[in-house]
Amino acid sequence: MSYTSKAYTTIKRNIMENNYPPGHQALEQELATELGMSRTPVREALIRLEREGLVELVSRRGMRVIPLSPRDMKEIYEVLTGLETLALSLMDGKVPTTVDMDPLEKSLDQMETAMTHDDLDACAEADARFHLTLLSLCNNRRLVNMAATLSDQAHRARMMTLRLRPRPHQSNIEHRQVLEALKQGQWETARHLHHQHRTRTAETLLNILEYYRLSQL
């Protein structure tokens, strides 16, 4: 792994796990010292993270982690729902194979196991894998990359509210319904179910932000 890749991966993980919380600022040199490398790969990593909407570069101050408002989250989920629905439309008519379906099934099994052990972090990771795996089946690299970028932007907010939300039993039921529709080649049903699922989960999150008056994440 190159120094730039290492810097990108480490800084991004710290953002996603809220080790660098919303609004957190750090100088390039501070990050470079923390990572044990020169400023050049750190700067290149920060430019990439800025393109992904996770940080903004601040003159003479390095980087700042971009906070997300409830309006930001609403917009992200609207676009993400549209992209995932489009991905399912692009798969219309495709005969799903075991190779296609097994990773989805595995993610849902892992989600259920995590819920059994009350491991909400592992549950959220399995949930994210299900959605990204589903997207990958459309074989449209640009669509997948756009959706993955939005998902990364929303991830921090999902993790910050993870323990404020109901246990995701309903989400897994809805995931199973989508998976069964896909297995049977019922693409219109799968699209409808998935759109309903995304709409419900977005409303749940936005209601929590409003109830707890969380103005930024």
Describe this protein's structure.
This protein is mainly α and 217 residues long. Helix content is 70%, strand content 5%. It contains 9 helices and 3 strands. A hairpin with a 3-residue loop joins strand 2 and strand 3 (62-65). Helix 1 (3-16) packs across helix 3, helix 4 packs antiparallel against helix 7 and helix 6 packs antiparallel against helix 7. The longest helix is centred in the C-terminal third of the chain and has 25 residues, at 187-211. The model has no long low-confidence stretch (mean pLDDT 93).
- Biggest sheet descriptor: 3 strands, antiparallel
Q: What sequence of helices (H) and strands (E) makes up the elements?
A: HEHHEEHHHHHH
| Gap from first CA to last CA | 31 Å
Question: What gross morphology would you assign?
Answer: globular
Radius of gyration, in angstroms, nearest whole number: 18 Å
Which strand order does the major sheet show? 1-3-2
What value does the average pLDDT take?
93
Note poorly predicted spans: none
Total strands: 3
Structural category is mainly alpha
State the share of residues found in helices, binned by percent.
over 70%
Number of helices: 9
State the gist of this model.
The protein is mainly alpha-helical and 217 residues long.
List keywords for this structure.
three-stranded antiparallel sheet, mainly alpha, 217 residues
